[in-house]
Amino acid sequence: MKKYLILVLACLTAVPSFAQKLPKTPKAKGLARVMKQQARTISQANVLTQIPISTLALTNVRKVQGKVYFTAVPTIPSGSLITERLMAQTVPPTDPFRLPLLLIDPSYEQRMTAIKQYQTTLENFKRFKSDINPVLYYQSRPSERRVLPALEKAELVNKILEMHRQLRALNILVAPQDRPLAQANAYVRYAMETVEPNFVNLLDSGLREKRTDRKFNQDEFIMEAPKEGRLAALKNYLPYSLRLRQAAGKLPAGIKMAVLNDRASALAAIKEKHATVFCPKWKITTYADTEKLLSDIKYGRAQYDVILTDLMVPGGGGYYLTATLRQQGFKGAIFAATAFQPDEKLSIGLFNKGFDGMFSLPENFELQKDWPLDVMNRLNTYFYYRDLHHWNR
């Protein structure tokens, strides 16, 4: 009996007391603070650091023979991250009925044509992306990067430029806020930066014109005449009919001008004055629809040296007209007619869109007597500055 009592007492002394307190587990905030402190300490070490198990509070670790080690996360090149992100992005095309078009009051045929062009271009981009993805992936990895042979590089550049040409034409029709289009533009630009960085400047959205022959000047853009001396200013006191004939006589002869405006009264007034005093040495054709003017130019039914367009016109509008003609290589002068005041911010925007000047004409300008003289004087000012600065697109 004594032996059994001794054995029971020995077992009880070996078991810890239930009253003994267990170690406290840190709370969530305390655990996060401990992890940050340990991560900061470990990151300062230049070699593999051994951490006692009793003080470990990190999860990104590895265990070797009962010892826990922490190693820094390997640094991935930023170019590789950009490439993988662009390669992984797949945004489905926008629903045709929600497609944000830049056209002003387009016809049904124009809308359907734009939607079809949008869908076709994005299908072509999908195939283009599958062809270029492997090249971008390996070129973004230092261990796999190689010098591209001249022939292979030329083929890739041609593919990129062709895809850019299709996207550039689409940028004129669809708003830049469209996600699939924005993704495609970013991908093509990065592809060119990877394959041939020297050609990146050849890529542009088509919505901003880059001129090398002319710098923006507010007075020149609104065709403000240079300041004259007192004697020259006396001509303002000459009879109106004489000043009208003088302004018409200064204009270069043989110019063909198209006037785009959706107000019938304005077009009728231009035709009436053209027969007598307004640009009598010019040939003027009037249009009320953007699509009709573009169609005549595209199919060679008409050629123009000067275009005077309102900004808000059915069939696309003045911005769409200018962007399309500049993309097609039109070298003539395009002037915007607007009722807005000649604000410099507006002028810079029009200049960057491809316009050569701006007429600030009031609403129902055709009811005013002096509009033919004012327009002809500003046209003469444009030709004066053009010859002075040798503007040539």
Question: Could you describe the 3D structure shown?
Answer:
The chain has 393 residues and is α/β, with parallel strands linked by helices. It folds into 3 domains: 27-74, no CATH class; 78-202, no CATH class; 218-389, Response regulator (Rossmann fold), CATH 3.40.50. 48% of the residues lie in helices and 9% in strands. The protein has 14 helices and 8 strands. It has helices at residues 2-14, 28-43, 78-88, 108-139, 150-171, 179-195, 218-221, 230-233, 240-250, 264-274, 290-298, 318-327, 344-352, 371-389, and strands at residues 49-51, 62-64, 67-70, 256-260, 283-287, 306-310, 333-338, 357-360. Strands 5-4-6-7-8 form a 5-stranded parallel sheet, with helices on both faces. A 3-stranded antiparallel sheet has the order 1-3-2, with no helix packed on it. Helix 5 packs antiparallel against helix 6. The protein is elongated and about 80 Å long. The model is unreliable at 15-23, 42-64 and 68-77 (pLDDT under 50).
